[in-house]
Amino acid sequence: MSATEVWKSAAEVDEVIRRMGEELGGLLSARAIRQPLMIGIHTGGVWVAERLHRALGLREPLGQLDISFYRDDFTRIGMHPQVRPSDLPVGLDDRHVVLVDDVLQTGRTIRAALNVLFDYGRPASVLLATLAERDGRELPIEPNLVGLHVRLAPGEQIKLTGPDPLVLVRATHRLGGANGGLS
Amino acid sequence: MTTSAVQLDAEGNLRHFLTLDGLSRTLLTEMLDRTEGFLSVARQAVKKVPLCRGKIVANLFFETSTRTRTTFELAAKRLSADVLNLNISTSATAKGETLLDTLRNLEAMHVDMFVVRHADSGAAHFIAAHADPHVAVINAGDGRHSHPTQGMLDMFTIRQHKGDFTHLCVAIVGDVLHSRVARSELSALRTLGAGEVRIIAPRTLIPVHAEALGARVFHDLREGVRDADVVIMLRLQRERMRGALLPSEHEYFQLFGLTEERLATAKPDAIVMHPGPINRGVEMDSQVADGPRSVILEQVSNGIAVRMAVMSMCIGTQNLRAAGQADG
User: What per-residue confidence (pLDDT) applies to B89?
Assistant: First the structure.
């Protein structure tokens, strides 16, 4: 059993991403990074990355990462039903990467995404940007840029729906309270 | 229990992969979709994903093979599994050990998956029926019966080039009688809803009930490939032929060998496939084999991705069942 409600409307999410774009621009110039390589994590991360990519006017194409083959729970829950091919059109070696995800919770997705990245090459640096960050970290992973911070009650989850419009919904699981584990 | 029942678990997930018969369109489509994902692994600098880390895959080849064994080995290694290659014909069975004893010994070494090729039809099914419940078995070709991963890599290659199956005309040319590849292809094409399937071969190389396989039978190559979208050539399996089925290879080529000229009646964008190894100058001439319409080497690359999809599907559900037992 779960109940869902809109937590942040399309207009609110757009405004959050707009501010993230500005902040990211500042962060990059502070580090003297001119042309970063932007990579979104499937599926929600790609949606957010597409908008940030546009906001920053990056010339090189957006990269897309599917972490299904790198999940740490494959041996427990099997393969994710929908695996999209990872698509990294530009070489990673010695590049500054901006990795984008929608919601950061346990940190396991980011752990997996970093492993994928390093199987493609050796980036000079990786910055992590997430639309929302919530409690429940299980690994020592912290984002460099966060749109929204949120603390949720046990059994509560937030999820990005999209791609157009982008809306953050809040779901409450009344039974068990177990979540997918990878956020 | 039928073969198709053995290869699925109670939830309808793939447990073994023995034959394409009895598998649903949904499952075959899922397998093709998953293969799409695994193709990108070949583009990584480190061509390896950790999905099957810690798993042991044993290649049991009772019949020789280079391409199939190598691509299964690469597929397992790209999934980070450990691979044992056992050339059974030269070891244990030569010393008198039975198939089941060999099996028990490998199970005692905690092997998680057997990839089996055998000259007898039904061998992989026999092993699946007698293996420990935690072991998955993949058929890498059994006698004249089935070669499901080859069938699926051919379907994947067709889908890559042609998209939807429903409007396609697929012509299978050659030694259908002895071909497990043809049997798997026919089964998959039927399940995936191919528009028209044709078999083109001399009378002696066509199974008795060919029409029951859902195919139109032709004995003339030019007529048979007319307006075809896909032309699949089969290898002439001299090693399986008993008796005088063919006058000579030379004469076979005169009638059924594919040349550019004979291919002229097919659609201009038709693709030509062959499961390998090619007998050049017997099934087709080099001009076709190396020509612009040939996708034979793509089939080999796709074979790795398809085998990764199959292996990960079987091993993934293996873990689910183990977890289910632990919970229950």
Answer: 67
